[in-house]
Every structure is written in structure tokens, then in C-alpha cells.
Specification:
- By secondary structure, this protein is of the alpha/beta class.
- Among the domains are: 2-204, Four Helix Bundle (Hemerythrin (Met), subunit A) (Up-down Bundle), CATH 1.20.120.1730; 235-334, Beta-Lactamase; 422-586, Histidine kinase-like ATPase, C-terminal domain (Heat Shock Protein 90, 2-Layer Sandwich), CATH 3.30.565; 737-862, Rossmann fold (3-Layer(aba) Sandwich), CATH 3.40.50.
- Helix content is 54%, strand content 15%.
- The chain is built from 25 helices and 22 strands.
- Helix 1 runs parallel beside helix 3 (105-135).
Length: 862
């Protein structure tokens, strides 16, 4: 009831304030109009004063003329006194008159004309007096007889009368405005009284209905209280409020669990109880905030508002906010998982930095291996049936392959190795590895295989997965010098969002789980934390490189998978590989037709390493190609200028000379548009300078003879023959020429900002016989299209930096209406697609790309 009375009193106060405001507003209007009337009145007075000043000026000029004539007639100097006094009056009066007409344009103009004429009149009078004093009376009278002075005085009177007439008109308008303001002030006063009366009636009405509204207000306050409590309950972190006396006045369920307090059965808590031994959790969290160190009434300026506290194996950030009327709001945030994520992030950054360092080590080593491998391949063909020589060549080839694998391990950790991901039956792959694993682990190690029912397929590089499982099994064997058991399990697993929240590198979804475990001695936590670091090993010198686990880590991460180690001293070690699941069918390798590796085309080879150049020339010549070589781009450009009849330019990327390999490629394609270009480098693909802007296929060093032969044939097959090119009409300036193509698209422009995905997609398209130009942004794609419109298809990711895939597709369709566009994304399209645009979902398979190419071919044919 008291609340209702207070509410009614509040409503009465509101009504009274409203009436007061309205009355005050009316009074303000009345005062405003009264002040305006007073201002108009002052203007009227000022207008009268202005007219008086003008009359005084005309009289002063007349007095000055009278004094001057009296002096001329009598010659008495005392007769000049009126003249001199009039001059002083005129100067002072003109200044006052000028100030009085400020703001009135017409009056100001008339004043200036009058002031000018008055000045001329004074000068004329002064000249006459001076002539009398210098030349005598006759000279002065002669000047006066001209009549100029009298005519000038007449003009003065006319200007004065005109000015006064203008002021009279202004005075009339000001008097009218004065009367209007007075009338409006009277009306405002009446309106104030009427408004006050109406407000009084409205106030009585509001008070009469106040009881019902007060009840509804009380209900609304109750609902708001419930909403506030629900809001507190929605917070997972403990939060509570202490008033100025230290009593607990608000809390949520998380706080009751933390304090082990039941509000339904126990009395409300106080600050002292929260700091007592009966509640160790709240005591541990509140004491660092300064509770208990000072009295409740003490000044709190130096009390800490945020502290970090550890209790019962968990880490908390405790926030304290002091209320204006006294009391505190305390929130305890559990940051255990946050700290764990920060630790994982720092570890990931360290691994990434180490990977960037190791990625550049492959260049020179790959060049050396390329020379060795190429010459061994050539020597193998020359030995024929010499078994002993072939055995030595085979041994040397195996050593070269081992060196290449070492380089691949470095690139794998750096996540820069070229992968060939494809749908793979992991269970079948493990079964094929069984004999190799038993032979590699020895008789003292028992090996067990366990495969779940209906295991899923994974999209990975099968050869790299075999290496990973073999590395993990060998590591497990080395951890059991006295013998033990290695178990390899294959099962299906789904990583949910909660698990992904704890591991930032994980994407929620289905995975194929490969678990390699052992019964060895296990690893301590500090060793597990460094297990994936390259060159870190617990083995003695000469017993290992420390690259095995780092290679597995890099391979799994590059394959968009997840890896984790579970180990404890005396309980063994388990390494779990989560490989991304695919719905695509597994391709039977036996059904793939053999590729033709020979040809008769003419090839220009550019390589600065003499050994590599000679080996490559010998291999290409042995396959039937006509080969010309050059040691740098400058020599190659000179050769091409003399004889441009080449079908393929095969060049290293990093070479000496004034011209780069990319400039050479652009030069030869400009002079011979039908020529194909194939690049090679010992650097990883994404470490080649400006590779994203090259737009040319690349084969990394070291490469085998089979790989080189297959890549040369693919590039030559994908190029557009010059003889088959149909003449086209010259493009207009408004619409750039879109490339025409026949059959299936061959020249693909790939736009993907993720380097790993760009590389894997490029490999899939190249295996289909396509020539791929890969870039990372939409701006680079538009630059390549403007530079050379040779492309048959644009394949772009949806999420690109600065320009999205949809924006790029819209611009391409406007500039190149006949160029097909395919957009790929892990999400659906944000809206309807532009005509001529396809959409495929990530992850996409080779079959998806094949269908996109076929769809583009059908549209082109239609």
C-alpha cells in the first residue's frame, strides 16, 4: 500500500511539474514578446534620434555657410566662430549618424552620399575662406559668385529630406511591429492561463486513474525483477551483489554452486561469511580484491578492481565494480580454457615460425637431387641388361629418393609439400601396409590392427598417409626397446563444436580416425609439448633426425585434419590422426589409362645449372622432342628472336641475368601466342617470388623423369593450337574480348587465397589436362584477364580478401559475358547467382570439378 501511495505521490508530482512547465512556457512566450516589444520601442526611439541627427547636420552646414558669408562681407575674423563650431558639430554628428544606421542598407547608402556631399561642401567653404585670406576679398567673392556653393547646399537639403523621409517610413513599420508584439504578448498571457486550466483538469483526470496505473506499474516492476534475475541466471559465470552493509542482495545459480549455499534453506549470506572458512572458494576469490583488508566503511580508491586467482585447479578473473550508493558487484570469470587456448595459440605460432624457416632449406638441395635423379634415370636407360650396373643405379636412386623424402619432411612440417589428395579407403590402405609394418618393426614387436564396421573414406594423399603411419609405428617401436605391442585402429569420429572451441585448428565435422598406440614407457608433458618441433628428438646422436613427428604434423594439418598426442609415463603413447571424411567414391588406380610420354614438339629449355640443363636436354631428346637450351633468360630471348618456332618454353624461375624468367615467358607468348610455358624451381610453390602473379604451371624440383614427361605432355596438350584458332571480330572498347573455347575448358584461372587449397586444386585440374593460373585475390585475377584473355573458365573461392568471389563474378560477367564462372564455398551462396555462374560446395572432389568443366562446355556449345 505504501508503494501505491508513493506511486500516486509521484504521479501528482509529475502532473504538477507538467502544469508548471506549461505555465512557465507561456510566461516565457509572454516575456519573449515583451522583450521583443521593448526592442522595437528602442528601435523607434533610435529612429527618432537618427532623424534629429540628420536635421542637425543640415542646420550645422547652414550655420557654417552663414558664418563663412559673414566673414566674407565684413572681414571680421570673429564672424568665423559659427563656421568653426559647425565644422566640429558636423564631424561629431556624422560619426553618430553613421553608427545609428548600421544594419540598414538603404540608410547607410543615403548616409554615405550625404557624408560625401557634406565633405565637399565643407571643402568649398574652406576654399573660399582661404582665398580671402590669401588673395583678398574680391578673389573670395569671385569664387562665391559662381553659385556652386548654393547649388551644393541645395543638394544637401534634398539628401537630408530624402534620408528623413526613409526614416519616417521605417518608423512606421517599426511602430506596426511594436503593436504586433504587444498584441502577441497579450495573447500569450491568455494562452498561459488557458493552458494552466487545461493542465489542471488533465492532472485531476490522471490522479483519478492513478490507482489502476500504479497497480500495472507494480506488476511491470515485478516482471522486470524476474527478467533481471533470469538475466543473471543466463550467465554461466558466478555473479553476486553486496549492498553497502555487506549483505548479499542479488546472485545467480552459478554463485550458489560456487559458495555451496542453498538460499531456500539457509539465511542470506554476508560479506563476513563469504570471507570465512565455511566458504573457502569465495574466500580465495574475494581476499585478493581487498575484502577483509580494510573495513567496510573505509575509502576504496586503492582497491583492485580486477585480479587473477587460481583455486582448486581452475583459473579465475574476478571483477569488482563499486556502486555509487555503496556496495559491490562481483563477477568471477573462469578463464581456464582461455589460458589453455592462449597456450595453444603460442605453440601454433612457434610451429608456424619454425615451419617458415624450414621451408626455404629445400631449394639448393632440390637442385642437387634433381641433377642426381635425372642422370640416374638417363643412365638406367643406357645400361640396358647390365644387372650389376642397374643394381648400383637402383641403390643410388634409392639414396636420392631418401634425400628427397628428407626435403619433403621439411616441407611437410612447413605445410608446403605438394600433395595429391584423393578419396582413399583408409582401412584398405592400412591392410596393404600390414606386411611392411611387420617387417619394419621386427619380431619383438607385436602389431595389432582394428578396423571399425563400415569405415568412412578420407580425402588425403595416400602415399603421405602411408609414410605417416610408418613413421608413427617406427617411433612406437623405438619407445619399446624390450618389446611390446603397436596397435593401429581405424574408426569413424565426429568432432563437435565444443571440442573445436578447445582446439582452434579444428573444424567441426566428420573425420576418419587413425590411432597408432604403443605399450611403451610414455612421455612426460614437457616432451609431448615439443614432440612436433622439427629436429627435436629424445634419441641419442645418430639415431634419428627428429623430423618424423613434425612431418606427420605438417601432413595432417596441410590435409585440413587434426592431430593429438595422449601420453603418460608408464602408460604408453597414442597418436590420433583425424583425417577429413569425403563422400566421393575411391578411384581404382588400375583403371587409369597409361599416359603417352613421348612427342616431337620443339622445346626451349632455360636452366642456369649446367648439370641440370644437360640432364633435362638428354631426357627430353630421348623422348623424341627437339630441344634447344640456354643458360639464362637473356640468351634464350636472343635465340627466340632469331627462331621463334617453339612449342614449349621450359624454364627455371630463379636465374641470373637482366631478364627474369617471368619476363621471358611474357615476351615469348607475346611474340608467339600459341606457345606453352612450364616453370620449375627448387623452391616450394608459395616461396617462388611473385608466384601468385605468374599464371603459369610449375613442376617442383627434384622431379622424376616420369613426372617431367607427364607434365610436359599435359602442358602441350592443354595449349591452344594456333592453327585451330578462329578469327574473331575486334572487341569494342566498352566490352573486352572474352576468350572463345571449344570442347572442355582447358585454360583455367583459379582464384583462391588459401595457398594449400590453391595448390591442391591446381594439381587436380592439371591431372585433367588443364593449364592453371592461380592467384590469391580478385584484383590479381582481373589484372590477368585484362592482360591476356586466354582463359576458358574462372574458378573462384567465395571468401576472398578485399573483394568477395561474388563481386569478382559480377565484374567478370560484365566485362567478359561469355566467360563461364564457377564459385566454390563451404557455405551456400548468399543470394541468387548471376547468369552464367555455377556454384560448387567445399570440399569438392575431382568429380565435382569435372562436372563443372563439362557444364561449362555444354553452355559454350549451346
Amino acid at each position: 500500500m505504501s508503494n501505491l501511495l508513493r506511486s500516486a505521490r509521484s504521479i501528482g508530482i509529475v502532473v504538477g511539474l507538467t502544469i508548471a512547465v506549461l505555465i512557465a512556457s507561456g510566461i516565457m512566450l509572454a516575456v519573449t514578446h515583451s522583450k521583443s516589444a521593448a526592442r522595437q520601442q528602442r528601435l523607434v526611439v533610435s529612429n527618432y534620434e537618427t532623424m534629429a541627427l540628420m536635421r542637425d547636420m543640415v542646420i550645422a552646414l547652414q550655420d557654417a555657410e552663414i558664418g563663412q558669408r559673414g566673414y566674407l562681407l565684413s572681414g571680421d575674423a570673429t564672424r568665423l566662430e559659427p563656421y568653426e563650431r559647425a565644422r566640429v558639430r558636423i564631424e561629431s554628428g556624422l560619426r553618430q549618424l553613421e553608427a545609428s544606421v548600421v544594419g540598414n542598407l538603404d540608410a547607410t547608402r543615403q548616409f554615405r552620399e550625404f557624408a560625401t556631399l557634406a565633405g565637399e561642401k565643407l571643402e568649398q567653404l574652406n576654399a573660399t575662406v582661404g582665398a580671402y585670406q590669401l588673395y583678398g576679398r574680391e578673389a573670395a567673392l569671385a569664387l562665391d559668385r559662381t553659385g556652386a556653393g548654393r547649388a551644393m547646399m541645395g543638394q544637401v537639403r534634398l539628401l537630408g529630406d530624402s534620408f528623413i523621409e526613409g526614416q519616417r517610413l521605417l518608423l512606421a513599420s517599426q511602430l506596426a511591429a511594436l503593436r504586433s508584439e504587444q498584441e502577441q504578448a497579450d495573447i500569450a498571457g491568455l494562452l498561459v492561463m488557458a493552458g494552466a486550466f487545461m493542465c489542471l483538469v488533465a492532472g485531476i483526470y490522471i490522479v483519478v486513474r492513478g490507482a489502476g496505473r500504479l497497480e500495472r506499474t507494480q506488476q511491470d516492476l515485478t516482471a522486470r525483477s524476474r527478467l533481471l534475475q533470469m538475466t543473471l541466471e543466463s550467465l554461466q559465470d558466478p555473479i553476486f551483489v553486496l549492498d553497502a552493509q555487506g549483505m548479499l542482495v542479488a546472485w545467480n545459480r552459478a554463485f550458489t554452486q560456487l559458495a555451496a549455499w542453498d538460499p531456500a534453506k539457509q539465511a542470506p549470506l554476508t560479506r563476513d561469511q563469504l570471507l570465512s572458512d565455511r566458504s573457502p572458494a569465495t574466500r580465495a576469490l574475494l581476499q585478493p580484491l581487498g575484502f577483509g583488508a580494510v573495513s567496510a566503511d573505509a575509502a576504496s580508491e586503492d582497491r583492485t578492481s580486477v585480479v587473477r586467482v587460481s583455486h582448486d585447479g581452475r583459473d579465475f578473473e574476478v571483477f569488482r565494480g563499486e556502486m555509487e550508493g555503496g556496495g559491490d558487484v562481483i563477477r568471477c570469470v573462469d578463464i581456464t580454457e582461455k589460458l589453455r587456448d592462449e597456450t595453444a595459440l603460442r605453440q601454433g605460432q612457434k610451429m608456424e615460425a619454425t615451419g617458415q624457416l624450414t621451408g626455404g632449406m629445400a631449394h639448393d638441395f632440390n637442385n642437387i637431387l634433381q641433377v642426381i635423379r635425372a642422370n640416374l634415370d638417363l643412365l638406367k636407360g643406357e645400361l640396358g641388361g647390365h644387372e650389376a650396373g642397374l643394381a648400383r643405379v637402383q641403390t643410388a636412386t634409392a639414396a636420392a629418393d631418401r634425400g628427397a623424402r628428407l626435403t619433403q619432411q621439411l616441407l611437410a612440417f612447413a605445410r608446403r609439400q605438394p600433395l595429391a589428395p584423393q578419396p582413399t579407403n583408409v582401412a584398405h590402405l592400412i591392410g596393404d601396409l600390414a606386411d611392411l609394418l611387420r617387417h619394419s618393426l621386427g619380431e619383438r614387436i607385436a602389431i595389432e590392427f582394428k578396423v571399425a564396421d563400415n569405415p568412412w573414406n578420407a580425402r588425403i594423399d595416400p602415399s603421405q598417409l602411408e609414410n605417416a603411419i610408418l613413421n608413427l609405428s617406427i617411433n612406437a617401436r623405438d619407445a619399446m626397446p624390450e618389446g611390446g605391442t603397436v596397435r593401429v585402429e581405424v574408426s569413424n569420429a565426429t568432432l563437435d563444436r565444443r571440442y573445436a572451441a578447445l582446439h582452434p585448428d579444428v573444424t567441426p565435422g566428420p573425420y576418419v580416425l587413425v590411432d597408432v598406440s604403443d605399450t611403451g614407457s610414455g612421455m612426460p608433458p614437457e616432451v609431448v609439448a615439443q614432440a612436433f618441433d622439427p629436429f627435436f628428438t629424445t634419441k641419442s646422436d645418430g639415431k634419428g633426425t627428429g623430423l618424423g613427428l613434425s612431418m606427420v604434423y605438417g601432413f595432417v594439418r596441410q590435409s585440413n585434419g587434426h592431430i593429438r598426442i595422449d601420453s603418460a609415463i608408464g602408460q604408453g603413447t597414442s597418436v590420433k590422426l583425424y583425417l577429413p571424411r569425403t563422400q566421393d567414391a575411391v578411384v581404382d588406380d588400375d583403371a587409369v589409362a597409361a599416359t603417352i610420354l613421348t612427342g616431337s614438339e620443339r622445346i626451349l629449355v632455360v636452366e642456369d645449372s649446367d648439370d641440370v640443363r644437360h640432364a633435362v636436354v638428354d631426357m627430353l631428346t630421348g623422348w623424341g622432342y627437339r630441344v634447344v637450351s640456354a643458360e639464362n633468360p637473356d640468351v634464350a630471348a636472343a635465340l627466340f628472336e632469331k627462331d621463334p618456332a617453339f612449342d614449349l618454353l621450359f624454364t627455371d624461375v630463379v636465374m641470373p641475368g637482366t631478364m627474369t624468367a617471368i619476363e621471358l615467358a611474357e615476351l615469348v607468348q607475346k611474340q608467339r601466342p600459341g606457345i606453352a610455358v612450364l616453370l620449375t624451381s627448387g623452391f616450394a610453390r608459395d616461396l617462388v617470388p611473385d608466384f601468385s602473379r605468374m599464371g603459369y604451371p610449375l613442376i617442383p624440383k627434384p622431379y622424376s623423369s616420369e613426372a617431367l614427361a607427364a607434365r610436359v605432355r599435359a602442358v602441350l596438350a592443354a595449349r591452344r593450337p594456333r592453327a585451330a584458332a578462329k578469327p574473331e571480330a575486334a572487341p569494342s572498347a566498352a566490352t573486352p574480348k572474352a576468350p572463345a573455347f571449344t570442347d572442355r575448358p582447358r585454360h583455367i584461372l583459379l582464384v583462391e587465397d588459401e595457398i594449400v587449397l590453391r595448390m591442391s586444386t591446381t594439381d587436380m585440374l592439371e591431372q585433367m589436362g588443364c593449364v592453371v593460373s592461380g592467384v590469391g585475390t580478385g584484383e590479381q585475377a582481373l589484372e590477368l584477364l585484362a592482360k591476356d584473355g586466354k582463359y576458358d573458365l574462372l574458378l573462384t573461392d567465395l571468401g576472398l580478401p578485399s573483394m568477395s568471389g561474388e563481386e569478382l563474378a559480377n565484374r567478370v560477367r560484365q566485362q567478359y559475358p561469355t566467360l563461364p564462372v564457377v564459385i566454390a564455398s563451404g557455405y551456400g551462396p548468399s543470394g541468387p547467382l548471376v547468369e552464367g555462374t555455377q556454384f560448387i560446395s567445399k570440399p569438392y572432389s575431382a568429380i565435382d570439378l569435372q562436372q563443372a568443366l563439362d557444364h561449362a562446355a555444354r553452355r559454350a556449345a549451346a
